[in-house]
User: Fold these one by one.
Assistant:
Number 1:
Amino acid sequence: MSRAASVNRAAPPALLLAMLLLAPAADAARSHPVIAGSSTIFPFAAAVAERAPGPGALILPMGSGAGIAWFCEGLGAQTPDIVMASRAMTPEEASACRVAGASPLERVQIGWDGIVLAAHADGALPGLTLADLWRALAQRVPDPAGGTEWVANPYRSWHEIRPELPDLPIRVLGPPATSGTRDAFAALAIRPACEAALHGHPRADGERRHCGELRRDGAWVDAGENDDGLIARLGADPASLGVVGFGALVRNAGRVGAVCLDGSCPDADTIRAGGYPLARPLYLYLKPAHRAFVPSLDAFVAGFFAAQATAEGGRLARLGLVPAPADAARQPHAADAGAVTGAGWRNIRGWIAGGVLLAVVVALAAGMALVRRPVPASRLLEKAMGTVLWSSAVVSGALLAVVLATLVVPTLNFFLQVSPVEFLGGRHWSPESAIRASQVVGEGAFGVLPVLLGSVMVAFIALAFALPLACAAAVHGHAWAGLRFRRGWRVGMRLAALIPAVVYGLFAALTAGPAIAATAAALGLGAAAESTLAAGIVVGIMLLPVLAVRIEDALAAIPAAAAEAALGLGATRWEALRDIVLPAARPAIGAAVLLAVSRALGETVVVLMAVGLVANWTLDPLASTTTVTAQMVALMSGTHELDNVRTQLPFVLGLFLAIIILPPNAWALRILRRSNVTPSPVY
Amino acid sequence: MSRLRRSTDTSGSRQRRDRTARVLARGGAWLLLLLLALPLLDLLRRASGGLEWALFLRPDSIEAGAAGIRGALQASLLALVPVILVATPLGLAVAVYLEEIAARRGVAALVDGSVRHLATLPPVVFGLLGFGGLVVVLGLPVGTPLLAGAVLGLAMLPRVVLAGQFALRQVPAFVRETGYAMGASPLQVVTSHVLPRAAPAMVGASFSMLARALGEAAPLLLVGFAAFAVGRPQAMTEPGIPLPVVVYQWGGLPDPLFAARAAAAGLVLVVAVMLLGVAGEWLARRGRAT
């Protein structure tokens, strides 16, 4: 046997060994802390972790609810060591923790927070009462026309709630249902007034379960987990209020101010002493068992109580933490009892991993059996290489099949709970729904049409903007430009197509959006800083290089002889183009446009930075909107168990997007193949 | 006589129309270039307030004054490792198999078709796969370059296959026919005849794909990279947030100094991406020349 054959025989066992080594490596313990949860605590945790010794921490601001859900999935490197909670764990969360074996836990109170209604620094809203807030934001309120009936909230302006208040539209940006701030806001600000109004009321039994539900008609806007990001959005929309933590108010002093509630304005003293009505404690929950592989856990927690950080002017104080005294802070969490093993998905994971491993072993054994057969060395090499290439094709095919499977399974689950008719036909998008049983956030509305409308409008504006320019440039390059220009042009367009979307996103958010809003204001039109128009134009700019190259490809695929014949008969270049080349190239140009449309529909980062998160059922390009892709990112909660409607929603939207995009793409690719255009690999 | 005059008249207007079309097309081309330059010029203008040498030395911080991109750069470079070592070779191998070896039926046709269509799916969809498959099922550690690289590799895989096929299709048929005429096996034809001619274009395309992967943020936002990593990653499994995600995060903060920093970091990203892109173009052209 030749050398090649022996190398071949050694390869499968080596591969097997590598597989066996890699499989557990994916599950290997880490030594860096992973901290997830409340975005209110996030800046404090980041500041503490920056100074903490040991390997660098990973801190994920995903909201208290989502953080606790992930935290309570069990013990081990796949789950966080510490969860930041801007509310105490509910009994059912604690029991989930216990069932998954994550208990016992330790709870540390790191400080206090006040939920603040932030307003633009020169906002005109004076103090409010909690009753005002309830009337403004509750989903159901007593009928203002009188009577004992309660109705869906009819108020549009603060003025309608109390005549002394200014005539400003009610629009409050706040965190989504995965957030502890949202829970606490509903519990502290909305619920008490509701309960008080229902006291002795004939309809108390029916209405009480809606107490704490926030409006779903657009007056309350889910603006993401990030407090500072929310304040940035507030700057673009001075008439609205933002529900944020006290820390965000301190960090952005000068940009925003706080609305005083029940005559008490939020500051460190009123929050600590309890005079401010929306004060709440901030906690860390940690898993003592994780100290075994993350040695720096205690050093991290101690960082919250370092004297110079919490003192006046210290790092944490500057970020807006109202610290708790260190001595009273730490206690074992009440809910901790015996461990129960085996959450379902873990077992599934084991089965899948085992199955994959088994398949690999079987395949390799079969390969080895094949290799043992006495065949000439060169044939053997041939066969082995063929097998390698074939299996890489199968592996990639399988990988891509898994793409669809991961989308399909949560989607099917989702549609067991939400009617497809509501999803595809509804015009109301307010995907807030409970992520745990005890939470009061209402049913959620899952009408995808306004979100789809946003995507389509962005794509339409982008294409309307980009297509004429790209056509002109492609025609110029095809018919008139010299060879040197054309060569440099194509390279330049290929390179320009590589410029990352975040760069366009920055341009849209910082420059194009405000510029368009200012121009519209100068023309006497009302425009949101995050307008559909701005996002569409910037996405259009981003599409220019690809579109220009693809259209030029389409023109170049038409045999030159046809145009030359026309020129020879006395046609001008424009006539040859208009009458001969363009008609022949039209299908391929159409295909290029279709592919560009699907890119615009799938564009994520630019729209996320430029377009906002509010679903508006409007065709006004100057209003703000949201898109399918932006909602996918905004709704991705980060919990690993995809067991409720909210965590499944990004997957549903992903599949929806794929289903919308794939058929036109397939059609476009067919047209391109038929018209002999090989699409250049410009993506 | 009158017919003739009319015809010269129309001919004059025909020339005029041709000139107008030409001017319009050229104007469109220049306007396109101008519009493409606009975001970059804006980036340069904004970056001037945030670009300093220390930016490259410090890790991320929640205070704009102390924030740097050292950790993000390292995370981005580490995240390219799985793309280079796994996704690119795998994708190119699939391209060779589909284009040169397999008959267009059965499994091969299925893979060919699905790759072609999946390449047109937006990258953000691959973030969902990354979450469902890599994080939940395989348990890759969140917030690490390993996961970032795996997700980016997944998103790039169909595109690499397409680019590889494109490069192979540029090799004329007679090259293969000479090989077969000499009695070479299909694999020998590929390795000794086709690949040497296609390699420069394949390598060039791979560089472009790397540049894409380096600048991609969308799928990462779905797999837990909307987070803060302290320090800089020393290994594939230590926390690190890649540069495009950091630019995205900084760009969304209200502090104007963070906006300047975001622009500066974005500029660094553009330069890095362009270096890879230009290297790819250069390699492809060099191969073509010889």
Number 2:
Amino acid sequence: MATSTEPTFSRSPNSGTQPLLSIRKVAKSFGKNVVLRDISLAIAEGEFLTILGESGSGKTTLLRIIAGFESATSGEIWMEDERLDVLPPYRRRVNTVFQHYALFPHLTVEENVGYGLRVAKLPREEVASRVEQALAMVKMTAFAKSKPAKISGGQQQRIALARALVNRPRLLLLDEPLSALDANLRRQMQVELKSLQREVGISFVFVTHDQEEAMVMSDRIALLRRGELEQIASPREIYGQPATAYTAQFIGHTNLLQGEVKGGVVRCHSLDWPVGLPDGPVLFSLRPENLRIVDLAVGSAGVNVVRFRGRVCHQAFHGSTELLQVECEDGLKLSIRTATRENWNGDLELEFAPEDAVAVRQSEERT
Amino acid sequence: MFSRAYRAAITLPPLLWVAVFLLVPYALLFCYSFWSVSPAQTIVHAWTLDNYRDLFRVNVYLQTLFRSMWIAARVMLFSLLLGYPLAYYLSFHAGVRKELFYQLVIIPLWVSYLVRAYAWKTILGSDGVLNTLLQYVHLTQHPLDFLLYSPFAVVLTLTHIYTPFAFLPIYASLEHIPRNLVEASHDLGASPVQTFWRVIFPLSIPGVLAGATFAFVLSLGDFLAPLLLGGPSGIMISNIVVSLFGAAYNWPLGAAISLCMLLLVLALIYLSESLEKKWSFR
């Protein structure tokens, strides 16, 4: 299912391509409840990897297993040449930014940030200077002496980040850290977090249920579904080349077309186009923005396009675009993203390029 | 919102209750403490400071007060030493047995105080369970007589009785610590021991203060345990008050001692509450 990014399991020490963290066949059950099944993935040095999934997909459990708060039922986790899953959380060079920040309420902001350095018994001056740097990095120097209860959610967020990064971890885990912030601040923090990650060069593993957030920030997205890895790829790839119907629907918006391939031609309702696939039923994902309304005055965009007619039955305004529901004569219903215009209606001439219809696997239903 | 009559109707009963059963008795106690007893054993209703002077001049009163405080301090210490680990274990490590253990700690509170005090009497007495056992296994030849009728017996019994009172607020404060703080501490490299001293214990201080106050104040005013198990050397201040109000028939002096204890206890509660405030962060 993973396309260009199969996890590498090399154990040889100094191979340049060795991942920072490899998760090998990790599974987790709570009693009879299977939460994670056979998860294998590798995280590269300096990578921003997002674990994306809806609630109950096991994404937080996976993060907690990496941090050491849960132990895997089976499988191993390696950080370069060190086996990580056998170590207690306080011996892992991994730090976490918790969903609700988990700042110590009895300590000041600077005591919170310096906590990890103080328990590591670093010299007083070094603690002080590193705390100062960390606070400057998140622009919170002015609040050094405040207690966490006295600062806002966004500020607590920054302190949680500084408290984790000040320890210079190999890997930073972030458990839905932006979910408690309002939309505006959240978008601002997405940008800040991403540029901070580039600046410090530490690998981030970011857990979220928000696909837009995942797209904006990540180098790669690992999509989890019911405890299994559905697909792992870069945002562009996972959006443009979804491997499964679930991925196509979860990330962005799509039309799923059930077709039948016969002799290099797919038939779907009254449409047909050539494909390089073996005979049999195939499911296609066609993004709404890949459907074009043909301006009869200008004409078609290309020669090898699939062209058909449809009637607008619903229109939804999305600010910069318009989402139309179109019904064809044969009953096929499609969503189309188009430029904004009031009152799209009547019959439209539509077309799409065959290469934009991506063959996807039907996601198995599991009970 | 609500009519005046309605508001009066709901506030009057508790006000009356407090007035009749608290304010009036304390006012009477206050008055008595400035009166005196005539040689003919009648109360003389003339203001005098003699009772307070006696309290500070007659050694036995102050001595007994200090001994009571010393006993109460030990009970407080032992209750905390027993109650804290118990509360910690229950809150953090008991898992599914939490509820059961909690009930086991609570159940003794349903048993009469007297029964528990008498139980210690049968355990510690010279023909008691403990002495019989020690002689049976030839650890001693004769019954150990310091076990019963001593401050030791009083401290032991009061510790047994008041440990649940120290346990409960500590347990409540531990239960209130968000578990992600413990995880955050581990995540930042702190070992379980470091986490306990740097995170868990500081956040449980309000519970410790409340538990300490309960154990100290309740033991300070106790008079049954010293009566039943204390012997002459284990007498506490409340026993003196009881005898002054009873056989000795010196209500004014009894009232003066009671008021002094009341002030002492109020000062302690005030101190403990202001410390608790300082140590709570939410």
